[in-house]
Amino acid sequence: MSQYPNIVLVLKDKQAMYKLFPLLFLFCCLQLPAQELYQWKNDRPRWATFENPAAKPGAGGMENNSAKGHAFEPIEAGASATLLNVQGAGMVQRIWLTVSNRSPEMLRALRIDMYWDGEESPAVSAPLGDFFSISHGRILPFENALFSSPEGRSFNCFIPMPFRKGARITVTNESDKRLDLFFYDVDFQLVDKLLDDALYFHCHWRRELKTALGKDFELLPDVAGRGRLLGVNMGLITAPEYGKSWWGEGEVKIYLDGDGKFPTIVGTGAEDYVGSGWGLGKFIQRTQGCPVADDSTGYWSLYRFHLQDALFFRQNLRATVQVLGGYMRDDVRTMAAAGAPLIPVTINVPAGCIKLLEGRHPALQDADFPNGWVNFYRSEDYCSTAYFYLDKASNKLPPLAPVGLRVAKMSKP
Fold this sequence. Notes:
CATH superfamily of the largest domain: Protein of unknown function DUF2961
Oligomer: single chain
Number of domains: 3
CATH topology of the largest domain: Jelly Rolls
Structural class: mainly beta
Distance between the termini: 54 Å
CATH architecture of the largest domain: Sandwich
């Protein structure tokens, strides 16, 4: 405070202090990023592109007499493109790319893999489209804290990705079609040494076409080590047998550091997890959003990034979401009579919440089953892309699902 004596004098007046506190707080918070802009560092900036794939000093744009000779390449069916292959310590700071075929089928068939420090198994392995924050191979204009697509034709990622010995990033075309045009650049810094506590970036994708009734969907299977859950984007394609009933009653659960049957962290519903409530519509914000909310087709995509509310773990972490929906009693009875798989869980009535899985209660079709909002287990098509940091360069999670499972039911936007 001594650097700003005028502020100190003003703060002697308590009333003025209360009025100025929000501005002072914002002023102080803005100082750190502003200082970083003018502080020199000994880092070496590099961009890997087709014009300089090895990101070597003084070696960019050498083709076609330096007149845009190699801006893109095709990726044949079954082939891979190497976006980055560098040795030494550094930090990936931005990934940008675009492709000529942006159909949901292609964006699910393209896979992105990232390897740190010479590991043979990837730390990141996900369908290309889903990796960039929106499920179901969808692309649309958006911007959040970690990803963006300015006009819905490109992909940007700004997640910091440290490496100590080397980094390799590849994109593989697992479709049966040639991708005619693939453009990219990977922006990174080479550094002398990373901080000792720098963690490795990881990403895991999974999908279940039909979840088991009464079983939570795993957003992130159990991962061992010390790290941080950065966030998740999840996708859902609702089953037609549930009609227009609400699908998002499921609570997100996060199991930390040896949790057994019960987790340490539990939410209150899917729309609540992404910051909304009482249903869900399309919105895009910095750390939470629902960029796809299509009740007519049943396609939904939502995300949450734990930036201000950090989720660190010391031993292990697992994240799940309950597959729960809700509707009024008579509508649930109609769905059940028509054969929709469901298990009633609770009933919301004026007197409170009736817990149907505790004690004895009438069956759903019984005349004395109370009237009210019924929450029920259901079976859905769920997918998730989980982003996390770990103190190891590999995570021992299952490999990416085969392309057939990834592209199933990928309708055009």
